[in-house]
Amino acid sequence: MTRTRAVTISRVAEAAGVSVATVSRVMNGSATVAPQLAERVREAAARLGYRPNASAQGLARGRTGMIGVLLPDLANPYFHEVMKGLTAEAVADGYHTLVAASDEVPEDEGSLAHELLRQTDGLVLCSSRMPRHDLSEVLDAGRPVVSVNRQVSGLALPAVTVDSHAGMLAVCGHLARQGHRQVTYLSGPPLSWSHRERRRALSESSAFGIDPQTVDCGSTMDDGYRATDAALERRPTAIIAFNDIVAFGALARLRERGVAVPDEVSIAGFDDIAFAAYASPALTTVRNPKEQLGRHAWRMLTRLFKGERGLEPQVLVPELVVRDSTGPAPAAIATPRLQGPSARAAGRPSVRSPRGEATSS
Amino acid sequence: MTRTRAVTISRVAEAAGVSVATVSRVMNGSATVAPQLAERVREAAARLGYRPNASAQGLARGRTGMIGVLLPDLANPYFHEVMKGLTAEAVADGYHTLVAASDEVPEDEGSLAHELLRQTDGLVLCSSRMPRHDLSEVLDAGRPVVSVNRQVSGLALPAVTVDSHAGMLAVCGHLARQGHRQVTYLSGPPLSWSHRERRRALSESSAFGIDPQTVDCGSTMDDGYRATDAALERRPTAIIAFNDIVAFGALARLRERGVAVPDEVSIAGFDDIAFAAYASPALTTVRNPKEQLGRHAWRMLTRLFKGERGLEPQVLVPELVVRDSTGPAPAAIATPRLQGPSARAAGRPSVRSPRGEATSS
DNA sequence: TTGAAAGCGCTAACAA
DNA sequence: TTGTTAGCGCTTTCAA
Prior knowledge:
Two copies of one chain form a homodimer.
Chain A: H1 9-16, H2 20-27, H3 35-48, H4 54-61, E1 66-71, H5 77-92, E2 96-101, H6 106-119, E3 123-126, H7 132-140, E4 145-148, E5 159-162, H8 164-177, E6 182-186, H9 193-204, E7 211-215, H10 221-233, E8 238-241, H11 244-256, E9 266-271, E10 284-287, H12 290-305, E11 314-316, E12 319-321, H13 341-345
Parallel strand pairs in A: 1-2, 1-3, 3-4, 4-5, 5-11, 6-7, 6-8, 8-9, 9-10
Antiparallel strand pairs in A: 10-12
Chain A binds a DNA duplex through residues 6, 8-10, 18-25, 27-28, 32-34, 37, 52-53, 55-62.
């Protein structure tokens, strides 16, 4: 009922019998305050329950202590793992994170980005599908912006990415060695940089003897579920999904249709989200160093804060994780297996990463 | 390189040849500005790329346009769905969301809550495990706070919850009708309100002829995976998991140990996250109206903003969703099934919710 | 080592 | 209808 006026710095100053400047110094850990005065101030602040007003601090300091993160889809656990790495670093440096999702509507990204920048000290664009023009407009504001999972040539946009191209080659190589030739790719959002890289690699996979097909899909479980029928029409012995949640959807549809995985059709995803190891069968996937990606993004941002420019793009290395959803192609099943079933059944949802199959750029 | 000074309101005023007050009026849609003047201002603002400084607005207006959300675990998709509902409403009202996670460390919640409140206009505590004392300290700040998934008697804390007690009774009833007696519950975080409600209902389930056991578990997939061996030692015919991701972990372990689901052991979860329908077998669960929960939370918060007090708690109704992970108890398998397998195999990962099994408070 | 005071960019009386 | 100006709460010179 009683609308108590908030406790401000001057209240504390009053209570401690000092000036606001002194209170400010104490709260910010300035060394130039007499110990007992500082103690008196701290005592008063604690007693009154003083919490500095963030807006006022932001205005006076010229920085908010927040950064913005824009991502396409809050429902994909992939992004939480990136956020986890990013937030861990940011919090350690006293920063908070303001998140917004474009819900896979590339046209909305521009205004969301501006809105985030308006309230923060810098921005991380994660797997952005923003049209190039909008992107350069965002950069024109001259504020610190870092891109994750997208490289853009010709724009001064520091980026940290994972070598999606190499990742796709690794899966294709793995499948080829298992005797697969007919491979169908459930494609991701058309404007996704990772998707484009994967597609590029896919078309090169004919060098492995693979005959790739593509089916339009998307990035959600439902997309995967729905695209699976079309994929099966191509009569593939293996399906590669744009990401793990798409693979999840596909897996569900395959089960429903009574298609045995991996005996009839193998399936692989990308990212290695936590659910992948718990899928049935456990999902073969290309691990993406998600937390690292987030950490690197933060470090880049801090370098921008310090005024550094022209930062080199960072490229992280993905890693093929072979689990139970991929196996020999049906035609090849009579020939000796490259990898016995005993090796795959052992232990808990295994996260084995055969060094020989790890990829690099 | 060139650190351009930010475009401020006075820059725009200058450029448009008007006072800052007029610019402010135009930007905030005040009707009392001559149309052509307004146009001139808008043009100047657009040309200069003016974006109001959020800190300055926050300070002048006495509100930030942000609300805080505190939740225990960013890795659980459950919370994203709650966030989705919450954010949708908040954004529609011009608000943004600042999220923090306690990572299941109840002792950290207090300071996180204060930190969020410091930067926002109100706070949503989601599935809070905060010790009561810390909670009342947070409320003492006199700022708008709403609780989701937790009711606290004796504190003026408006809450919107789901009837977890009824949800648990619904699962137990379902299992009892399938002939289950030996049921093991993989318990949630000890301080979770939902967990406590479920546990209370569980102990009442002996009325259905159920003999409940409890195994300490937690709230993550890994917790579920690890607790499953201990659960099996109780020789249950059915396992109830604290939530769906715990059930996912348990499912993986059961598969590994060659325990057939649901033929040997049935398993059910809570929440009905998106992954549940795609699990193998598709997971029987108690659906939680996640988005609604978020929407209600926002509405409560807005009522607090308007100065309303003493808001009645809102209790939403969960709904049992029977899928393929539960079936007749092994001993009862010889007797006629209550629900034939044909009914469960049909269609896509089915989200059937037999009205007769829907629960209410 | 401390205090006075000038902003930070914006909003909202109040005057004109 | 428009402009002037006093804050909003805090930081940070600059003096003392």
